[in-house]
Design goal:
The complex is a heterodimer of chains A (about 300) and B (about 350). Chain A has about 300 residues and is mainly α. Chain A is built from 11 helices and 2 strands. The N terminus of chain B is likely disordered. The chains are: A mainly alpha (about 300), B mainly alpha (about 350).
Chain lengths: ~300, ~350
């Protein structure tokens, strides 16, 4: 195997890893704070992709602005979904909450996918690139500017998100809720608002992923399927609800996928992924970086 | 039947005591009382209405309904939602279909073989995850389902990949009615087996204890073992129904394993009411014919399914069964008053 191939695999892997880290981080946040299994996470990715496409292509806005608008739009859609669906479910449903959120969001995913298909058809709305040009590192190794910037956006998104959680009061409130809901309420945190904000934030990360990856994955009704599966894969591998682990895991999975795809081909790569999951569940069911805080085993 | 009622009216013969005995047997038996009139309706409907289109509709509804019933057996009783359900159905279908195509094995042997294959994969999936929280089973079953679909697409030499395979039919007749009655027989057998498990000592203990695992272990019930039996059986039944599907429709494509199909079955079972077995079955007969008008508009159909699932979860978690129980309660209350 020569150096150019290795380089390309690495670049693709890290680039995809950035996307997965972004999405899986959002998914893990939802589980860690609200105990929500969001199956419609991929659909928020699609929301970001569509909005970015319309802002950039239809309205001719500059790329960075289009991506920001898309992130904002996914934030709003997330907030709306939380207020209209998750909150009533929390108030009214009986039975196991986690399972109920899983079912509710899987219904939501089907509705969003097929509504998109009804409204916009199955047409692929993609762009070749936001930014032209390539960065040459050596004569044989290069990386497209578009890819590099997309990766940079993912890194900035993750870092900003991380700092927000660590350094701001609202971020501390979110982490407090994830540790102990009753305790958080007792110190005066408004649970309803924090939960809406958390859901919106998770959605925004997915939307940011969809917008910045538009040149790689075009906007179409079912574009969220693969990112959704992969981010679920990441959070399961690292342990449900572990935000920091998901970010590291996203990069690992991105790299492993890139190499598995090269050696095994697209069909068998999924089988390989399943093998990895089975192995992890056998050896360490709480995931690679998992702790038993949220309780993995049935009690 | 008629002479029994007559003897009941004469009020003097020794057969007088047969009704209370029958009633007691009905209540003690694992079969829910409401299953009898339902079975009678399903048996008689195609005889009363002799219409080929209606017969096809009935068979399609029953196929969906039976799947919803099998789905509810895990979803409603051990709270483990099999998110790869459609793939288990597909595994049974492909096993039976490929056996028939490549080895010339009769579908009558192929269908149980399909059930066996799906049951085996279900057993392994369950053994790995059922000691974990419920959502792990769902995620794992989902990944297993995705892998099964990926393998079916990838093994082009055996399954012809996305092109799909043609499978011999179960019967030589083009008439749907015999298929319908065979499927009805299979559904009844599956229903009785599922009820027997639910009604068994361990099943009842599990239900009484609910999800409290310490209490279960303290009272000598091994919850993981019961859940494993339940999950394996459900997957095997899914495989059996898949085998029937293969030889009923005659064409198999890997697309049948897609998650959307699982969500359709799941929606039926939840709209009907979980933990009822029959709720999803009845719902299938209400919804499938309705959707036949929307043929070709798959997306609208799925939008409605998704909406109904969401609305049921938020507004009325008890589902149609809850509505039914409420009605029965009202009628009984009125009788007491009158």
């Amino acid at each position: 195997m020569n150096l150019t191939v290795l380089w390309n695999l690495l670049v693709t892997g890290i680039l995809r890893g950035g996307l997965y880290a972004l999405m899986a981080g959002g998914l893990a946040l939802l589980f860690g704070v609200m105990n929500i299994c969001n199956f419609a996470h991929g659909e928020l990715f699609v929301v970001g992709a569509y909005v970015a496409y319309f802002a950039y292509v239809t309205f001719g806005l500059p790329p960075l602005l289009a991506i920001l608008i898309a992130a904002g739009a996914s934030f709003l859609v997330g907030a709306l979904l939380e207020k209209s669906l998750i909150l009533p479910l929390r108030r009214r449903s009986k039975g196991e909450w986690i399972m109920n959120t899983f079912l509710l969001t899987s219904g939501l995913s089907v509705v969003m996918q097929n509504t998109a298909q009804r409204v916009w058809g199955v047409r692929y709305r993609g762009i070749t690139q936001y930014w032209a040009g390539t960065i040459r590192i050596t004569p044989t190794m290069s990386v497209a500017v578009d890819r590099a910037v997309a990766f940079l956006i993912a890194v900035v998104g993750i870092t900003g998100f991380w700092l927000f959680l660590r350094r701001t009061n609202v971020g501390r409130a979110i982490r407090a809720v994830s540790q102990n809901e009753t305790g958080a309420m007792l110190v005066g945190i408004d649970l309803d608002n924090i939960q809406t904000l958390t859901f919106a934030l998770g959605s925004m990360l997915a939307g940011l992923g969809g917008a910045s990856m538009l040149s790689l994955i075009p906007a179409y009704p079912f574009a969220g399927g693969k990112p959704n599966i992969t981010s679920w894969f990441v959070v399961t591998v690292v342990g449900l609800g572990n935000v920091g682990g998901s970010i590291v895991g996203g990069f690992i999975v991105g790299l492993v996928e890139s190499f598995a795809f090269f050696y095994l081909g697209s069909g068998w790569q999924d089988v390989f992924s399943l093998g990895v999951i089975i192995l992890i569940l056998l050896v360490k069911p709480s995931g690679l970086f998992g702790s038993e805080v949220k309780g993995v085993l049935e009690r | 039947m008629t002479d029994v009622t007559q003897s009941n009216q004469t009020d003097s013969s020794p057969t007088r005591s047969i009704w209370p005995a029958v009633w007691r047997w009905l209540q003690d038996s694992p079969i829910q009382p409401v299953a009898w009139p339902l079975l009678a309706i399903l048996l008689l409907l195609p005889v009363v209405f002799r219409d080929a289109y209606l017969h096809r509709l009935l068979a399609a509804s029953l196929l969906f309904g039976a799947q919803a019933m099998v789905f509810d057996f895990t979803g409603g009783y051990i709270n483990a939602v099999n998110f790869g359900f459609a793939a288990f159905v597909g595994l049974g279908a492909y096993t039976s279909g490929l056996l028939a195509v490549n080895a010339g094995i009769s579908p009558w042997i192929g269908m149980p073989a399909g059930a066996l294959a799906a049951g085996l994969v279900g057993f392994i999936t369950g053994a790995l995850t059922l000691r974990l929280r419920g959502v792990y089973v769902s995620i794992m079953a989902w990944f297993v389902g995705l892998a099964l679909m990926a393998v079916t697409y990838a093994m082009v030499g055996l399954t012809r990949g996305a092109q799909g395979i043609n499978v011999p039919y179960l019967l030589e007749t083009p008439d749907t009615l015999p298929y319908y009655y065979i499927l009805l027989g299979m559904t009844v057998v599956i229903y009785v087996v599922l009820r027997l498990v639910i009604h068994s000592r361990v099943g009842l203990a599990f239900k009484a204890i609910g999800q409290n695992f310490e209490a279960a272990r303290a009272s000598g019930v091994d919850p993981t073992r019961y859940k494993l039996i339940n999950f394996t059986l459900s997957c095997a039944c899914a495989g059996l129904l898949g085998g029937f599907y293969a030889h009923f429709v005659g064409v198999l494509t890997p697309g049948m394993m897609v998650t959307d199909n699982t969500i359709e079955v799941m929606a039926l079972s939840y709209i009907g009411g979980t933990g009822t077995l029959l709720g999803g079955l009845v719902t299938a007969f209400l919804i499938t014919p309705l959707f036949d008008y929307l043929k070709g508009l798959m997306e609208i159909r799925l939008i409605i399914y998704g909406m109904l699932l969401i609305l049921t979860m938020i507004l009325y978690p008890a589902g149609l069964d809850g509505l039914f129980q409420w009605l029965v309660g009202r009628i009984k209350g009125r009788q007491k008053q009158g």
